[in-house]
Predict the structure.
Amino acid sequence: MDEIVICNFTKKKFARGFFLNIFKLAKSHLKEKKRCILSVVLVGKKLAQKLNKNYKNRNKPADVLTFVYKSSARVIEGEIVLCPKVIPPKDLLKYFIHGLLHYFGIHHRNQKSYLKMKKLEEQIIKKIKQC
């Protein structure tokens, strides 16, 4: 059984169901069978910038960062950090899906993989809007 934890360190309220439903739909769309242990962490600009500097050597607040701590044949364990102050409110869905795709092992290292990732994002968003 999957474990999803939402840690909100911002003043803004977010419904747990928002993240949970998107996670379930993305996992189903990708046909992922592994057990997932995921923390979704919402942070302010200061912490987003510190994490971005430490892990990406970029001295600005990150919009989304994904950390995978363990990925085996049976389980994926990781964390998605989102900074709502950096993400336009109407785009939170898109950024969360982007983080999920990284969590599930999909990356954009070149133009071809970038286009593949964008297509998956669009497919998942379309499915969500149909629900």
